Amino acid sequence: MSIPLTAESAMLLLLTPVRNTKQDTPEVIQQWDSIASSSGEKIAIWHEGKGPNVLVVHGWAGQHSDMASFVAPLVAAGYRVVSIDLPAHGVSDGELTSIPEMAEAILSVVATIGPIHGIIAHSAGCAATAIALKKGLNVARPVFIAAPARFAIFVHSFSKQSGVDYEALIVAFSRRGIDIDSIDIPAIGSKLNGGALIIHSKDDRVIPFADGKMIADAWSDSHFIAYEDLGHKKILSNPTVITEVVSYISN
């Protein structure tokens, strides 16, 4: 018989990514390093190539190698690619993390490597990137792939499925300094200067296609591309997607 979740235990569950260190794709970035985040924990980064920096950011329970298909084309196009294992992911430090803490990690990486020309984010990495942009991250070419619109939607769905009171869950997150409602990409994007490339597959079963459309509709000057039959993860290795992203970064 399972023990019912409390708001606190549910919150901790939602902040604990399943750590994956298995390389599902060939390791294409050979130069490894680590930096200290604002919390003092080590963040693992990889870098390859020379030129303007492009940062690639994986999603929840992912790792830097998820974004490997973008590396060689970007390097060939004249960019230095920097890939990150977010806190509590891959080989970076930590057991718990949140989207705001992931955003702080992105800001710490950029403070170390210098200005970035582009950023390519996937899934929850898009939410972290949006928070970083809200906090002043300067990037000319942001790319969001399979982005979730609002974290509150996910938390509300989880509360219904788990039987945990939604308002109590919000309070639990608040005690940790996390404002659920502030993790809202459409709201953030609507206030940012400059556009973004937003990509989503219509058959994504993890993040609904409607989320991507919602973000694009709210974010002025954004460019939205819809795909078929690429799901949530396969979209990261599709040659057409990669070509579109590199073209946008290089434009």
Please give a structural write-up.
Helices cover 35% and strands 18% of the residues. By secondary structure, it is of the alpha/beta class. It has a single domain (29-149, 184-250), classed as Rossmann fold, CATH 3.40.50. α8 (209-218) links the parallel β7 (197-201) and β8. α3 crosses α4. Residues 25-30 have low confidence and may be disordered.
Which SSEs are present, and which pair or pack?
Layout (H helix, E strand, L loop, with lengths): L6 H8 L16 E6 L5 E7 L4 E5 L13 H6 L3 E6 L13 H15 L2 E7 L1 H11 L6 E5 L5 H12 L3 H10 L9 H5 L7 E5 L7 H10 L4 E5 L11 H12 L1
Parallel strand pairs: 3-4, 3-5, 5-6, 6-7, 7-8
Antiparallel strand pairs: 1-2, 2-4
Helix pairs in contact: 1-6, 3-4
Summarize the structure.
The chain has helices at residues 7-14, 71-76, 99-113, 124-134, 151-162, 166-175, 185-189, 209-218, 239-250; strands at 31-36, 42-48, 53-57, 80-85, 116-122, 141-145, 197-201, 223-227.
Brief descriptors of the model:
globular, 9 helices, Rossmann fold, 251 residues, 8 strands, alpha/beta, 8-stranded mixed beta sheet
Shape: globular
Query: At CATH's second level, what is the architecture?
Result: 3-Layer(aba) Sandwich
What's the overall average pLDDT, rounded? 91
Largest pleated sheet: 8 strands, mixed
Q: Which class best fits the helix and strand makeup?
A: alpha/beta
CATH-assigned fold name: Rossmann fold
CATH class placement: Alpha Beta
How many structural domains does the protein architecture include?
Answer: 1
Radius of gyration: 17 Å
Based on DSSP secondary structure assignment, what is the total number of beta strands?
8
With strands numbered from the N-terminus, the spatial order across the biggest sheet is 1-2-4-3-5-6-7-8
Q: Helical residue percent?
A: 25-40%
* Number of alpha- plus pi-helical segments: 9
